[in-house]
Request: fold
Amino acid sequence: MDDRPIGDHGYQLFLDEDKLMGSRCSACKAIFVPPRQICVECRGHDLAWASVRGTGRLAAFTSISIGPSFMSEEGFGRDRPYCTAAVELDEGPRVVARLEEVEPSRPDQICIGMPVTVRFLHRTTTSGPRTFLAFVPC
Ligand SMILES: [Zn+2]
Reply:
C-alpha cells in the first residue's frame, strides 16, 4: 500500500496527513496500531501498512492534571486537566490517544463504551509542528 518502512516515523508521517494507519500480519491478519514490524500473535515478520477507519469505543480513560511539559505548553495543568484514553478500534486493536470534547473535570460524565471517532490535532511545539492523535465522542 505504501513503501514507507513500518515504524514510528512512518506512523507519524501518516498522522501528519490525517491518516490513521497500522500494520496487518499477512499470516494471521492481526492488526496493530501503532504499527508493529513483528506480529505478536504468530511471530510473523510479513506485515504491511493497513488503514483503519478511525472509529471505535472508549475502553478506558484518565483525567490528568499534571502532565508532560508539552501538555503544559498547551496550557494544561492543575486548573485545566485533560484526558488520555484507550480506544478499542472497530478493527480490534487498542490505541492510546488524547480524548477531546469531553469535560476532564467531570469524569463521571464520560462513559466507557461510548462511540468515538478520530481527530488529528495539528499543534506547534517547541520542536516544530506535530500532529497528535485524538478521539472525540461521535
Ligand atoms: Zn500474525
In short: The two ends are 29 Å apart (CA to CA). Residues 25, 27-28, 30, 39, 41-42, 44 surround zinc ion (CB under 6 Å). The helical segments are 8-16, 69-73. The beta strands are 21-25, 31-32, 47-51, 55-64, 82-89, 94-99, 115-125, 128-137.
